Amino acid sequence: MDRLARSGYRVHALDFPGFGKSEDPPWEITLQRLSQHLVAWISCIGLERFHLIGQSVGCEISVLVAASHPDQVASLTLAGPAGLPRLESLRHQIGLAALDTLHEPLQLYGAVLPDYFRCGPARLLRVLRAQKECPAECLLPEIRCPVLVLAGKHDRTVSNSRLASIQRAIPHSQTIRVEGAHGGHYTHPDAFSESVSRLLNEASAGGHPSPQLKIA
Asked: Which residue among 26, 81, 147, 189 is least crowded, i.e. fewest CB within 10 A of its CB?
C-alpha cells in the first residue's frame, strides 16, 4: 500500500464483514453479498471512479464489481486468481494451497494466521465453496476496463493453464508473473507494486479524471 501510494494514488484497504477486524454481518456471507457491500462502502466514502485490486478470493469479488459497475472501475488487477475462470475442485485447490506454503516465508504466517483464526475454519470453508460457485467465468468477457492478471512465479494455486484461460476470457488483459508465490504482494512488494503502477498509469492516461485505488 505504501509503495502504491507513493505513485500519487490514495489507497484504501477494506476488511470485509466477518473478516480481519470488522464485525460479523447479520447476513449470510456470499461473494455476491460481499461485492454489494464493497459497492456500498465505496459509495459511502465518496469514490466515483477507482482502480480495483483483488487478491486470491478477492479476485472474484472484484470481477463481480467490475462487471456490475463498468463506468466506475477504471482498471482491474487480479492478483493470484486461484479460482478464475472457475474453481472445479475445492479439494484439489486446497492441496495446491498446501504445496504453496512451502514457498512462503515464515513472516507471512505471522501476518495472516491471526485473521484466519478469527475468521474460523467453518466460515473460511463456506467462502471457498462460494468461490467455487461464483459465476465469475461468465462475467469475465463483459469486463471492458484495462485488466492486469498477476501471479507469483512459484504460486502453485495459479497454473499457467489457468492464466491462459483467463487471457482467453479477457483478450485485452495483460498477464505477468512476478517474484514470489501466492503471497507475492507481501513478500515482494516492489515487483508487485511496479507492475500494478504501470497499469494504473496507463489507465489514468486514457482521458479519465485521475481515479483512486481500492484494494479488495
From this structure: 26
